[in-house]
Every structure is written in C-alpha cells, then in structure tokens.
Amino acid sequence: MRAWRDGLELDTGSPQQRATLALLLLREGRPVSLDEIIDALWGEATPKGAQATARTYIYRIRRALAHPKAGGEVVVSSGGGYALPAENVTVDLWSSRRHVALAREARERGDTGHLAKLLGEALACWTGRPLAGAHGWYVDQQRAELDRFKLTILEERLAADLDLGRHSEVIGELTDAVSADPLRESLRELLMLALYRSGRQAEALAAFDDVRRKLGDELGIDPGPGLRTLHERILRADPELLGPPQAAARPQSPADAVLTPASIPAASAHFVGRTAELGSIIDRLGGTGRAAIVGVTGLSGMGKTAIAIQAAHSVRSMFPDGQVYADMRGSHSEPVDAYDVLGAFLSSYGVTGDRLPTTLHERAACWRSVLSGRKVLVFLDDAGDPEQVRHLLPATQGSAAILTSNRRMVELPSVQWVNLTPLSPEESLELLAIEAGRERVLRERDAAIRLAALCSHHPLALRLAAARMTTRPLWTVAQIEAVSREELRGLTHLGPDCTVLARTFRRAMRSLTEEQALAFRLAAVPDWTYLTVPAVAALLNVTPPRARALLEALTDAHLLEAAPSGRYFYLGIVKVYARCTAWADDGPDACHAALQRLVRFYLTNAEAAVRSALPLQGPTPGGPTPGGALPATMTYTPARGTRPWPADSRSDILAVLDQVDDLPEATARRLRGLILREWRPAKTHGPSPEPEVTPATG
Q: Is 239 helix (H, G, I), strand (E, B) or coil?
C-alpha cells in the first residue's frame, strides 16, 4: 500500500497504521467509528489503551497525508468517526471500480471492443499485492476479497478478448491464471476455448483431463456442468465453438509461427516487503517513450533476482509478444557469452538452423529486427559487465528490459538503476515468520528482533536463520539467537552453516582488483563502527586519495555502505566474512601489522590535536610511538581547537586499543589519556547504522 503527493512517495507508517488507512480507503468516503478501527486492528484481543493507540494512528495518517502548503485535513471527523472523502484523494481501487462500472455499461450496449478496453484499464490500476505492508485479520479478509475482485476483472477481460477473436493472444495469460488458481473452473473453460479456437484441440482436451484429475484428488468432485459441456462440444467438433475469426494482425514472418516465449521463472511464494522498490521498477518498466531499461543492483543475497521476477510477472500483460529470460552466469563461474544468449533468444522466435546468423553483430542486428514492432520484455539476470548485455537490450519503443547486477554499469547510460538495501526490521520479522512459523516468531518477538539484527536484515542470512529454526523445532528462538551470536564471536573461522553466505560474498569479490580485495579484508580487522579516509590510509599504508578510491570502489561493489560525513561502514555479516578471510588469507602477522599502523596514526594525531587546542605542559608521558614515526602523508595537522576525527569516534579508538595485545603499556596509557582529555562523552547525531557488529547466523 503506497501513497504519493505531488509525485513524492509518502511514509504510510507501521503495519497497523497502514491497516487503519486501508480501512478508511475501503469505506470509500463513508465514516468509520473508533470501535470499528479497534476491531479491525485487534479483533477480540484488544489491548489496554487501544483507543489512544487508534487515535494516534489517525493523527499520524492526517499528518502524513496533509499538504504542507494547501492546509486542510485529508482525513475528516464525521459522525463520531473518521472519513476520507473521495474529493480529497485519488485511489487506484476506486479508479478500478469506476472502470469496471463503465465496462458493464458497455457490455449492456453490446460494445465488446470498449468493454475489453475498459476492463484492461481497470486491471492497469493494480500493481503488486493488495494492501501490502498492512497486517491484521481485517486486512487479510479484505485482501482475499480484493484478489477475487481482480481475478473477476481478469476473467471478464479475457472472455471479451475471446469474443473479439484474440484467441492466441490470451493463451499465455490464461495459462498463468490457471497455474495460480488451478481449481477455478471458469478459467479452465476460457483456456480450453482459447486453445481449441487456436487449432490446439489436443491441448484443450488435456486441460480438461488435468482439472478433472485435480478436482477428484483434492476435493473428491467431478467438473461442473459448464466444463463437461464444453468438453463434449470439443469432442464432437461443434462448429459454433469456433466463434469469431482470429483478430487481424500484422503479416506473419516465419518467426511469428512459433509459440510466444514466456520463460520468466516462477515468482517466490515468500516474497516480503520491498514495496517502494517494486513499485519503482514496475512504474519504470511501464514508462512511455523509448525502450525502458531498469537495472536492479545491491549486495549479493539482497534479493535482486526475486524482486525482478516479481516485477516481471506484474507487468507481463504489457508485453504480449513475449518475455524472454537469460541467466548471464548460468551454472558456470564464467559469464555466459552474449553470442550464445542471442542464439537462444532468436531460436525462441523461430530463427533457427541456416537462418540463424553466425557472428555476434549479425545476431544482434537480427535480434533488433525481431523486437521491432513488438512488445517484448527481456530479463537478463546476474549480468557481469556492459559488453555482456549491450547487444541484448531492446532499442525501440514498446519493448523493455530488466537486468540484475552486483554493481551499476555506468557505461550503459540508458539504464535506470534501483538499489536494494537491507530489509526493515518489520520486514525481517515478517520473513522469519513466513519461513519459520508466525506463531513461533511472535511468541518470542524480542528474540526474533535480535536474531534479525544479528543477520543485518540481509534476506539470505534471514532465510538461513529461519532454516536453522525449522530444523531445530525444540529450540527457542532465544537459544538459536544466543548460539548463533556465540559462534560468530570466534571471528577467525566461519561455521559450516555460513558456507552459503561465504560463497555469496566471494562472488561479489570477483570483480575486485587484488588491492581492493586486500583493502576489503584488512579494513574489517579493527573493532570500529565507521571507517574514515585518513584512518584507512594509515591502516593500509597508502595515501588518503588512494584510500578514498579504494573505499569508493568497495562501496560501488556494495561491500561497504556510505555513511554521513564522508565515512563508511560494513554491514555486520559482511564484516564478519571480511575479517575471517583476512585472518585466513593474509595471516595474523598482516592483521597485527595493520592494527599497529592504525594505533600509530591515532597516537600521532591525538597528540597533534591536543597540542593544537591546548599545548601540553612538559614532556608527553609514556614511551616512544610504536613502530616509529608515520610518513607525512599519514599525519593530520588540525586547525586550532578542532578534533582529527568525528566526535563519535572515541569508542572506536578505544576498542582498537583493546585489540592490540603487544602495545607497550605506557603507550596505551598515553593514548587513552590523550583521548579522554580531548573528548567528553560523545553525542551521536542520528542512529548508528550498525550499533554493533551484527554477524549473520547460518
């Protein structure tokens, strides 16, 4: 459930606040009493203070929807309750119902063409799952009703298309609809009729046999009279079944004589959240003008393929000439060549044998010709580099492409990128509930929240955690969280359950240079939350400009996250993996040497900062700086009265000091004294993205 004002998306709040907004919208302007809101949110399990909580949701909804300049309230008080008048908002569901009402008027007039058009417009109002992000018994009930309403619209539109002679065009949609609801007999009737009218009598009869078997096995009943009658008429080749002639189409080439490709993989039944990102992808794929190309990027395991598949199925009806899919990595470590993918795509449109071009550029030109004048969706999954996909992308209006990749491809300026970040805490809980059992997760909500944070809200890590819960049904969630946390405190090795995550992150590292990979590993060794350019320069023994370039490269690869004030941070589970590989690949000596360089940097610059603000009286206490003086490029000369690091870095520096076992006691005491002298307890501005290292569980 999403809302916009002046083109900007609004925050609709928590799941229960969204459920309150859903109740107001579903009443279509009619007032809703406070008691009705409470019942919709909690049912019989009404908590103490429910009235105050419900009024708070109304207040927040008013504040979220109110226009900052126009004034006035979108949600009004009415008859002892609350209402959202139709003149204050535009709602896609209301628009869909208006189109359906107009469509039924067209049916009464016998205007089948206008009927099909209006029903298509009614369906176009629907994007994603109804009432997504809202929870509660009332929402679940209404969502089921809305699903049935949408399916009814689809059925009526498909029936109108059949009446217009569009037999072949609707087979793909009907097949998908039947797969989603295999026991709905009216859909089976339409599919059988479309197949029969397209000259595919055997497949029509097979569709009847399939539904008869499913009805018998699952419900113990036979097909209804409508299906049985249609089956008998097909068997005796009733001429009246043929209906109107096939709708006129452009002249067919040999490529048109084959089945319309529909090779997008099945969508996940456990897809959770990502409402804003999914809506953005769908909106961009449906844009007008030149061919729309949308890229989905993010850290490995963030669910790029899952959300791209969801989007592809949501817009399928917009691309009636086919949807083609290619795994650009396949089952191999090496990327799939564009030449081979073009061959597969062309073959799916009937360009085979001697007609299939033999060079890359000839195949690319032929592919552009096939796409010309068609509406085709091209799905390129796990693309590695621009040259791998450049020849596969559509070039003309009508078609579109969606691709997933671990990094943005700036060499392809026509791609509109959508970046995936970790799930929200609420989405993480929902994923755990779906995968491991809702009752179990809600019974130990606090422990589940800690477990989700331990996973850094990373979708793959959450699924692995849920798998552990499923295979240990007698363990409490708190026990699983505690064991997982304890396992990941031994940061010099990865447990066997973490091998899936390790493989995932190794894939993300394949695009790194040797220097970038070393920086990724060593920068995870210190116990710090934020990475600053000067400190990383000292840690790696490089200049600050080089350190900045390395940190930016790791951010582009989604192995680091950008924080305010030009700083960076690791997701907890990524830091665990990076530190483990540092100890394993670079060895303890290299890790200790990096920490020594960092301590020298802290000590040198703390002294400089303190002396700049207030010169010390007499000699500085303590022994010599460990390892000698730093190169000039690694020291920092602060302006008088300033600090060399952000005010919230003190805890990071003290944590690093605790890591260096062989630091002379006098030197450690001197650095601690300088830090404590310079800093009072720091106030952090805004929430820390990683308040502690939150490693994944396996």
A: helix
